[in-house]
Amino acid sequence: MNIDIARLQKEIDDLALISEATPPVVTRVLYSDADMKGRAFVKNLFREAGLTIREDSIGNTCARWEGRDKSAAPIGTGSHIDAIPNAGKYDGVVGVLGALEAVRALKATGFQPQRSIDIIIFTAEEPTRFGIGCLGSRLLAGTLAAEKVANLKDREGGTLDSLRKHAGFPTSNPLDVRLPKNAYSSFIELHIEQGPILEQRGLDIGIVEKIAAPSSLRMKLTGVGGHAGAMLMPERHDAGLAAAEISLAVEKAAKTTGSPDTVGTTGVFRIEPGAVNSVPCFAYLEIDLRDTNVTTRDAALVQIEAAAKEICQRRGVTLEIERVNVDAPATCDPRLVSLIEGVCKKQNVTCMRMISRAYHDSLFMAQVAPTTMIFIPCLKGYSHRPDEYSSPEQIRRGVDVLASTLEDLASVG
Ligand code: GLV
Ligand code: MN
Ligand code: MN
Which of 12, 116, 145, 342 stands the most exposed, by the fewest C-beta atoms within 10 Å? Predict the structure, then answer.
């Protein structure tokens, strides 16, 4: 297969310039100008490759290479192009533009797929805007309750409904994007590893067997504000200090489960009014907690909630807790894992089976289709930071493995 890595690398580099931040920093938050321009850039490439584009009411975008058998369930691939604040250029993007390059390479060989191949750009894999990750794939899998969808709000109070309409997506109900049963015969996502294992072991490809279970919490703390000079210490109900203590309780809970796989992060921490001479009257936290073992994760979650209640009670601060998402882990399809192992062997690339500690749209696609992921190494495991990097050769190998896997799957009627 002739993968044009120079073309693909240029497209990755060009997309990275469409950012809310100054390059090389990539920030593309859902429905922002950069997100919309990024989508337009990729859709244009899809069109140039002769693919047919369809968008749903929240902006999940599907580019189809029509197969000979229109009645057969297609093969899905793809990932996301939204990027958290201060991100790099490979997370998600390699799975979208890499899939496009795989399709172009297959087309160039004269291959005609029996089953259609869909490249999907999932809406908002990143949780930045609404606090919940994998919004698009959750809705495709039908796992988000109507009430949660209606209550999604961003920092400025904007709702999913108003923002998606403003972004120009069709007005039908977001719950209608749910995929019908057996919509995809399989789903394969190419992604950078976002961890150091492949690089440390000098391996080319990871094949994902399991995706760790993510969860997240929101906490709103209301204390008593006042003058930083005049309000004496015994009188204080400082929401900021309660939030600080809760952040430490998150760290403690994650470190004391007895499992090295538990990870807890307080990634959003805001206090109000945010003036040096004012006691914080309000604090807002977003907490991310994960484990490969769901029982361990759940126990840590309960511990964090109990600690937060105790801290706020002791400090005379009112606490509201919302469980934004508490997801199960995903088990990947063993037949697809073996198939990709076979492809790696044929291509003479080294591989290992592994667990994904990061979450991906595959976590939800696995609920509706046999799914797995192809990981490529990235420098020192860096991700969610601007110096995220995979070499052109590492990307080329991943795309080559994806292309052969798609060829195999799409040949069967
Ligand atoms: C995905 O971006 C994650 O946070 O795992
Ligand atoms: Mn990410
Ligand atoms: Mn990603």
Answer: 145
